[in-house]
Amino acid sequence: MNWRIVGIIVLLFGVGLLLVLRPFSDDGEEGAATATRLMQPDFTAYGLETKIFESDGALAHQIRSEEMAHYNQIGLTELKQPKYSIFSQDGTETWQVSAEQGTFYDDKTLILERSVEIQALQESSPIQRIMTEYLVIDLANESMSTEYPVIMRGPQVVVRGDGLSADMSAEIMELKRHVKTVFQPKS
Predict the structure, then answer these.
(1) b/e for 127-142, b at 16 or more Cβ within 10 A?
(2) Residue from 90, 95, 98, 97 nearest 59 by CA
(3) Where does residue 22 fall: left (phi above 0), alpha (psi -120 to 50 degrees), or beta otherwise?
(4) For residue range 125-165, what is the model confidence (pLDDT) as tens digits?
(5) What pTM does this model have?
């Protein structure tokens, strides 16, 4: 066989391979730009507050955030520096949950991430602070849960565990797996 014919076949094969693989194509960048355009928020709000009321008109929950970006198409709102407050039947704020970021879904699910802190606002509470990295709050069922490590601090106790489930209406919290408890007597 002639070397010219072999060279032409290799060249055609190489060109065909480039056409199929298209390593210099901008389709990836165009696809990413299209996806970004599709995921633009419908609105962005700063310093917004959302209040959720009981059927009798009493304030039950409140969500505040430094910045909220709402995506109507997928039914979620992204939150920066969210603060979620829980109120008792008499309208007193009992617990406040804060985080670095969060996501609020249309089905009334609030997911908080990074530096999540649950703080009791009543001094008589045996647990004053609960810290974790991820927390799911179901507003419809008034429950909270996480599978992540949890640290609970009270005036004289520190409890470590993995996972937490809480019924906010019954005011019951349960560690899914206890790891360690340290009692600190008053000095």
Answers:
(1) ebebebeebebebeee
(2) 90
(3) left
(4) 888 899 999 999 988 888 899 999 999 988 888 888 899 99
(5) 0.71
